[in-house]
Amino acid sequence: MASQDYLHGFTKKEQDRLIHQARFLEPYVYAGIDLEHTARLLEVGCGVGAQTKIITRRFPDLKIDAVDLSKDQIATAKKNLAPEIKSGQVRLFQQDALQLHMKDAGKYDSAFLCWFLEHVPKPLEALKRVRKQLKKGGKIYCSEVFNQSLFIEPYSPAYLKYWFEFNDYQWSIKGHPFIGAQLGHLLKEAGFVDIQTEIRPFHFDSREPEKRAAFAEFFFQILLSAEKTLLAEGRVSPEQIQRMKAEVEICKKAKDSVFFYSFMRATARVP
Ligand SMILES: C[S@@+](CC[C@H](N)C(=O)[O-])C[C@H]1O[C@@H](n2cnc3c(N)ncnc32)[C@H](O)[C@@H]1O
User: Fold this and answer.
1) pLDDT number for residue 13
2) Ligand 1 contacts CB of residue 18 (under 6 A)
């Protein structure tokens, strides 16, 4: 996978950000995910194995086959998951989800996708492929972005303009920054049943100032992960980035500021 086709790129800094992101969001991403009855899990778009590691800790009895398209991500995942690979709990595969063909197709109890479908040009095709790997009755868990929902108070025009360019750029490289809202009909179209979708908001104000500051900073780092690309594309200017930084500082510190973002969780079953 060429790095220009992937918004965040494959630098060491970005790979470290994925590990931090998975840990930071763990209480929110895993709330309501019950893999107790899963013996074999397929994780698609595993990146550097950040979620894989968390899943093995939370559910030590299951076995994971984890797939990513990028050689670089798989190479780093191999290092991050060395003990789990050695013990046979995890196997890694470099494959394109759009041509997913696991040797053990039809044997997986569940599939886990996290911050992944937004990066795939044909998310419906990816979901159809995942369905074919699952057993009858197998379950899929998707946690995906809905970037339209990001808002900070006080009103922050430089931040919102940068965010528009971030999402517009992702759209231009055939990504899907608003895919969370589409999960229900994509899963239906891909042949899943018992589809449940949930809005999962992060909404922090003066009642929880530490969390508000932590989330404002965390999302700021996500925005900055595309800084070089957006500058090179001429979509943002250094001055605009300075203004955005000042706005984020206000959101982190002002007494009556608000941070809001919502991701989407969808679960469904193979009939
Ligand atoms: C934002 S990362 C998320 C990684 C991981 N799920 C996590 O939460 O840390 C998205 C990953 O999807 C992978 N990816 C993008 N397109 C893919 C495709 N067609 N098939 C498999 N993996 C793909 C990228 O290489 C990247 O590692």
Assistant:
1) 80
2) yes
- Ligand 1 pocket, 143 CB below 6 A? no
Radius of gyration for the chain, computed over Cα atoms and rounded to the nearest angstrom: 19
Are 50 and 80 in contact by the 8 Å Cβ rule? The answer is yes
Tokens (6 digits) for 15 = 């790979």
Alpha carbons within 13 A on the beta-carbon side of 205: 7
CB atoms within 10 A of CB 103: 7
User: Which among 219, 200, 119 has a CA at the least distance from the CA of 159?
Assistant: 219
Q: Which residues lie below 8 Å from residue 191, measured CB to CB, with a gap of 6+?
A: 128, 131, 270, 271
Q: Which two tokens stand for residue 238?
A: 């250094």
Does ligand 1 lie within 6 Å of residue 25's CB atom?
no
The CA–CA distances, whole Å, from 264 to 22, 100, 138, 204, 215 equal 16, 24, 20, 17, 17
pLDDT in tens, 114-128: 999 999 999 999 999
Domains of the chain: 3-269 (3.40.50.150)
Question: Does residue 110 register a pLDDT over 70?
Answer: yes
Structure tokens at 37: 């009855």
Contact 72, 12 (CB under 8 A): no
Largest CA distance in the chain: 55
Q: How confident is the model over 129-153, as a mean pLDDT?
A: 97
Distance CA 23, CA 45 (A): 17
